[in-house]
Amino acid sequence: MTKNQVVDPIFPECPIRNIIARIGDKWSILVLLTLDGASQPMRFKAIETAIPDISQKMLAQTLRDLEADGLVLRHAYAEVPPRVEYELTDRSRSLLPHIHDLVDWALNNLSGIVNDRKAYYHQ
Predict the structure, then answer these.
(1) Residue 92: which residues within 8 A CB-CB, separation 6 or more?
(2) What is the pLDDT along the chain (123 residues), one digit of tens a residue?
(3) If exposure means fewest CB atoms within 10 Å of the residue's CB, which of 58, 69, 87, 113 is most exposed?
(4) Handedness of CA 91, 93, 97, 85 (dihedral sign)
(5) Contact 89, 70 (CB under 8 A)
(6) Residues with Cβ < 8 Å from 60, sequence gap 6 or more?
């Protein structure tokens, strides 16, 4: 098992827990949506600019993890200065309609959820 491999200790073969653990982190969905919104591959700095509250370290780690899962392609060009670009894979493109549905659901339900939370915690 590698350092960044996601495995549920109780149910190590569970595909749902494995996938949700990876894409359900704080940054993966934002990175995928950012790359989805681009008309061409993006450089690291452009992704970082598009997600202003992500640190360089977390963006680098998230991109590595998404690349390891086959959700992002990394292209390094032997130029001076070096140029690296990131783009979505067919696998991530097949995932994106579900992410967009989740985003739509969240937008449609956020105010109700916030109101229910307030009511629950202020009983």
Answers:
(1) 32, 35, 36, 66, 71, 72
(2) 455 566 667 777 787 888 888 888 999 999 999 999 999 999 999 999 999 999 999 999 999 999 999 999 999 999 998 899 999 999 999 999 999 999 999 999 999 999 999 999 998
(3) 113
(4) positive
(5) yes
(6) 44
